[in-house]
Amino acid sequence: MSGDQPAAVRFEGVSKSFGDHVVLDDVSFEIPAGSAFCILGRSGTGKSVTLKQVIGLIQPDSGRIFIHGQDITGMESRDLTEVRRKMGFLFQDAALFDSISVGENVAFPLRRHTDLPNHEVLARARAKLKDVGLEEAFGQMPSELSGGMRKRCGLARALALDPDIVLVDEPSAGLDPITSGEIDQLLIEQRREGVTLIVVTHNIPSARAIGDELALLHEGHLVAQGTADELDASREPIVQAFMRSRGT
Amino acid sequence: MLGASADRVGDAVLETLAAAGDYFAFAGRAFLTLFRPPYEFLETFRQLDALGWRTVPLVVAAGFANGIVFSMHTRAMLQTFGAASVMPQAVAVTMIRETGPLVAGLLSAGRIGAGIGSELGAMRVSEQIDALEALGVDAFNYLVGTRVLASIIALPILTVTMDFSGIMGGFVAELVTTGMAWHLYIVQAFDLIGFTDFCASTLKTAVFGFLIGTIACYLGFNTSHGTEGVGEASTRSVVFSSIALILIDVLLVKLTYLVFPQIAMV
Question: Would the pTM of this model clear 0.90, i.e. be above it?
């Protein structure tokens, strides 16, 4: 990270438990603005919890989380809303609002957070859908879309307000390799445009393609962090097992 | 053996009390949300349509059938005492004072309670509620506040619809049996009904609406365990809101009699 620019995201000694189950134990890392950070780990190791903590959906038990230098831990919901406006979140199953059309899903954040006239909102929503190759699905309902189309629609919605930070939960889950590759390509394009990406994935080829830096969560701890080459060179058995896998 | 049973009963009591405490905190927050901006007018109108307007056919059919059946059952008894001429008054008093509000409330507990419970439950398990929050929307205000307000507004309107449908049903029964004229029927029907009667019994259903809305939203909003949890939230919404509605009705009738003692005289 540059000397005068704060990290896009910084975790300082973050811990989180659910009942007796410790999900994160004193986890610290920082993600420079404009970079792509992939979080790897086995199921149930707290990857999605980490992502939800970044956007304030889950509060840590201890530790602090900074977004562009601003501490969001315990922040008032009104202030948190302002922080969230600068972030986009692509959920694992896209989490599209199933009572409104695809176009209205993408228009939703624009209607909530801008004063744009209706025709401009619709034009922007259409443009965002076009960016992800879904322009023809504008009037369709989410239930009519395939898994890959839902993901792309979810990405269009996450990008609707041109956020600085985009959080992506399992972009490849449930998708065939070709569709998964298309989603990866869309994320790489965002990184090229200067968006900070935080991607949770099991898919190592995907993480190698997207991530400037990879981090491995294991049993509540961040056991490795670095470039793909650095993790390839790690002697930690769990890191080696992960980096040599072709998990999807 | 006895100790273990006592522990289980104790745990169940504590769990129930904790859940009740959670619900009251949720309902209190929902009540305060009604008076706090931002006001979600568009979503509230959408919910009024979904929860209120679409319940009208059910309420009209139930009210109309209720009026006919009540008229058929009661006529025979009133004839025994030579009082068949008070049939219109009997139908109107019964419908407006209790049958209309209670049946409209119970039907709404089924239709609205199940609808809210399953919709919010499905939104919870499919992360749509998280998605709302992630998009910078206060999900409680947007989902709970609007549905509770829509339920509060819809219930009195549905009750008036139920009352009118029941009185119409009673008229059809009278028309077939005695050939009574519409004008005479209406004049006689409202002979014993005062404005206080109508207002007290109709406005109490706003409390029913609050109960149905908050219970269903509470159960839907806190759904877990996937699709099984959604079904459970829907079923429990109907059961709990129906029970709560019947219990609160007894209290509200008693309260009405205390505040307006003239109603109890007729």
Answer: no
